[in-house]
Amino acid sequence: MLREFLSIFRSGQPLEAMGENFAQMLKLTYEQTIQAGEIYFEQAASADERTQIYKWDVKVNKLERAIRKQVIAHLSVRGNTASLPYSLLLMSLVKDVERIGDYAKNLSEVVELHAGPLPDDEIVAELREIRSGVEAAFAVTADVFASSDRERAVELIREGRDLTHRCDALVQRIADSSHGARTTTALVLATRFYKRIGAHVVNVLSSVVMPLHKLDYYDESVLGGGRE
Asked: Whole-angstrom Cα distance, residue 154 to residue 160?
């Protein structure tokens, strides 16, 4: 289904503009995620850097509304009902990407709760590894999506699920640590935000391998073999 979906995006039809807007959403939310990570781990951000996060968020929200409007306009035209499944797919993916932007923005705001340097310990080291994993997957998601690379998507989905489990385990480690309230809060929030960013990236990748009715779900039978 995704290959057909992408072929329509590139056909010069009205859906092509939706595809361009979606690609721009991916680009902006990736930039948000990278900058939010820098702000969080460096614990020091200029006013311009903080403002840029919010400017990107505004653009992402506008693109989401634009795509919704384009989808409605497209489906209101007689003869376009055949593209309804693709439109539903796009509406689902757009929401995932918009949520990534929100979580990146939230991550950048954690510095307001913990302005000092983060501890130099194994917990923060693990969080840095989780950050690297999420950013690495996100960096190639647009290309994997555009090329409908099923093999690479499955690999990234499995890695993403592993990162989710690592986030859950890390929250427990933070709860058991001797860190003060502010540090504990900052670490738990960042872990949860990276978990959600990673999960939404995986949701986008799931469109490469899962049928529409199983989007966001990862049956082992589908990931390991043919589609159901």
From this structure: 10
For 184-224, the pLDDT digits (tens) are: 999 999 999 999 999 999 999 988 887 555 555 555 555 55
Under a CB-based contact definition with an 8 Å cutoff, are residues 141 and 170 in contact? no
The reported pTM is 0.86
Shortest CA distance to 108 belongs to which of 182, 164, 171, 33?
33
Q: How far is CA 170 from CA 90, 105, 176, in A?
A: 33, 21, 10
Question: What angle, rounded to 10 degrees, do the helices at 15-42 and 84-109 form?
Answer: 20
**Count of positions (residues) in the chain:** 228
Amino acid at 152: R
DSSP conformational letter for 212:
G
Q: What is the DSSP letter of 179?
A: -
Q: Please tell me the distance from the alpha carbon of residue 174 to that of residue 178, in angstroms, as a whole number.
A: 8
Distance in angstroms (rounded) separating the CA atoms of residues 76 and 99 = 27
Q: Residue 5 in contact with residue 18, Cβ under 8 Å?
A: no
Domains and CATH numbers, the chain: 2-224 (1.20.58.220)
Which pLDDT tens digit goes with each residue over 94-127?
999 999 999 999 999 998 888 788 999 999 999 9
C-beta separation of 166 from 126 below 8 A: yes
The angle that helices 150-176 and 181-209 make with each other, rounded to 10 degrees, is 160
